[in-house]
Amino acid sequence: MAASPAPLPVLVVLGGLPGVGKSSVAHALLSQWPAVYLRIDTIEQALRDSNVLAGGDVGAAGYLVAYALARTQLAQGLPVLADCVNPLQVTRNAWRSVAEAVQVPSLFVEVVCTDAAEHRRRVETRVGDVAGLAVPTWDAVQRHDYAPWAEGRGHRLLVDTARLNARDAAALVLAALRSQITPRAAAPPG
Prior knowledge:
- By secondary structure, the protein is α/β, with parallel strands linked by helices.
- It has helices spanning about 20-30, 40-50, 60-75, 90-100, 115-125, 140-145, 165-185, and strands at about 10-15, 35-40, 80-85, 105-110, 155-160.
- The radius of gyration is 16 Å and the shape is globular.
């Protein structure tokens, strides 16, 4: 594989339903592209563990923490990889606003698994890797509030993990970073 792009301040957001392979793609990507890794599952579980939330309901708090951390890291010149469901247009717009606030490019990657039987198998056999986090059931995944991505709202790369393994999916994301993000980030203003 060709060398990975230089770590410029850029926001990459991996979104998709639980069990589609976002974290696997993230780990494969991070092995080739150094970035600050913000995983919503980790942030939300830390908030639950703190016992400061009313009734233990995280609500939007995990995303709000992640937006603030991403903004800080991007402003310091570091690339950021966010791993989250990113289920609604409001969350997608918020990530876009983070990148715009610090004037860095962004790449949105929707991770899907078009093989429903494989997706279900992954969800039902998933072993949690965040201490204390209860992994969702297949029924919960199917009921998850997840809005289709609106066309014309910025660039979105679609990655199907039913067709690509994590390493190949990461290579696709890196290629998109090279062709769409890096040239814009390196271009002179004006």
